[in-house]
Design brief:
Elements (H helix, E strand, L loop, with lengths): L4 H23 L15 H9 L20 H8 L15 H23 L2 H9 L5 H12 L2 H7 L4 H18 L6 H17 L6 H16 L3 H20 L1 H6 L9 E4 L2 E4 L6 H13 L1 H19 L5 H4 L2 H18 L13 H20 L3 H4 L5 H21 L17
Antiparallel strand pairs: 1-2
């Protein structure tokens, strides 16, 4: 269903409104508790500060090289105007100036991550349009706007919030090349995928979907230009990899260590600790961090399962190329982190758009359950039950968005959740 010109304007305004709401959510209280108490693992801040250190200065507790996270975001911070080196205010300056000066390196990183995380709203809309009508896609974007999991990560000087935006952008670009074999479409998909790869190690999970999307599209139209396109896209991803992971190539290549681990910079994969514990911890951890989204995903999966069992969803429809490409990314994320010894909710940030789409599908099913029973809707009359159904579906969506936005203070205000039982 294509929206009318009037609908397009209202939809554009709705998406802009959602982005503005998300902007306020992130930037209201962005400097909460700084500089006294800051988040852990702020390696991107320290790497950028070490690069901007004065001549003759060595490593300090606030400035040192690190390969815990990719170097892409620190390089962006270095390229931005201003200095990342901690600088003290003058002795005669008021206390507020001293606090602001001490907070500045962390605020620079938080602003960058908060801005990049805003990409998840429009990208979720464009992803949802593959499966949902325009206004239900807006609702999916609304769920992404109020996701507590994304919101909490977007206020921190860590790359996970930025990955929320760049990963969603990569999936939009990957699905776009399935409809167009133009070289510029592949270049766009390569840039978006490269940004995801450079944002965080788990951003590399988009690459199998990129390859699958290309293969399925080529099988359909047999356009030989696509092979040139995929070569361009992979080359662009390679450039981003060199920028973000130079230590893998030039300094500390991946190699087995004496403790049955594969070193990936300062990240290690311990093969002897893999099991099924991550699968057992997923639901409790997600329930603690984003309970409303968990309920909607459960309802959406139940709706899809019933549709498959009753034949409402055909096998051909379930195996649509878009479903395979998008589903592969979700499956890789769930399986690999499920096999990990420890599961943290931030691992699922890249697949929050998928959760929001499934949640919107669930709410649409609630609406359709009302409208299908009203005979007047089949005559095009839009009877009372149709009106109740439409208002209830969107009403549920508004309530969901409201619930998601509650129970959270300014940035960093939430205490870490207790470990799951």
């Amino acid at each position: 269903m294509r929206p009318t010109c009037s609908d397009k304007r209202w939809i554009a305004l709705a998406i802009v409104a959602l982005v503005l709401v998300a902007f306020v959510e992130r930037f209201a209280g962005l400097g909460f508790l700084l500089p006294h108490e800051r988040e852990a693992d702020t390696a991107m801040v320290h790497v950028a500060a070490f690069h901007d250190r004065p001549a003759g200065s060595g490593m300090t507790d606030a400035a040192y090289p690190s390969t815990i996270y990719p170097l892409f975001f620190p390089r962006v911070l270095i390229a931005l105007p201003g200095s990342n080196w901690p600088q003290a205010a003058s002795a005669s300056a008021p206390l507020s100036a001293h606090l602001a000066a001490a907070s500045n390196p962390y605020m620079r990183a938080r602003r960058l991550i908060a801005l990049l995380s805003l990409l998840i709203m429009p990208c979720t809309y464009f992803l949802a349009r593959r499966w949902l009508e325009p206004w239900w896609s807006v609702l999916a974007a609304g769920l992404a706007t109020t996701s507590l999991l994304v919101l909490e990560a977007s206020d921190l000087a860590k790359p996970h919030g930025g990955l929320a935006g760049t990963n969603a952008l990569a999936l939009v670009g990957i699905l776009a090349l399935m409809r167009s074999g133009k070289l510029r479409t592949y270049a766009w998909a390569g840039i978006a995928s490269g940004l995801a790869v450079a944002s965080l190690n788990s951003g590399g999970f988009v690459l199998p979907s990129l390859a699958l999307a290309h293969w399925l599209a080529w099988r359909k139209d047999r356009d030989r230009r696509r092979w040139i396109g995929i070569a361009i896209a992979l080359a662009i991803c390679g450039v981003f990899f060199v920028i973000a992971y130079p230590y893998i190539i030039f300094v500390d290549p991946m190699q087995p260590s004496s403790n049955s681990a594969l070193n990936f910079g300062q990240q290690s994969i311990h093969w002897d600790t893999w099991g099924i514990q991550g699968f057992l911890d997923m639901t409790p951890w997600m329930w603690v961090n984003d309970p409303t989204l968990v309920v909607l995903v459960g309802l959406g999966l139940a709706v899809l399962a019933v549709g498959l069992v009753r034949g409402r969803v055909s096998r051909a429809s379930a195996l649509r190329p878009e479903n395979l490409v998008f589903g592969l990314h979700v499956a890789i994320t769930v399986v690999l982190f499920g096999l990990h010894e420890r599961f943290y909710p931030r691992y699922f940030i890249p697949i929050v758009p998928a959760f929001c789409i499934v949640g919107a599908l669930a709410l649409r099913a609630v609406c359709n359950s009302f409208t299908a029973a009203d005979s007047s809707t089949r005559r095009g009359g839009g009877g009372p039950r149709a009106r109740v159904g439409g208002s209830s579906g969107w009403g549920c969506g508004c309530v969901v968005c409201g619930l998601c936005g509650r129970g959270r203070g300014p940035a960093g205000g939430r205490r870490p959740p207790p470990p799951p039982p």
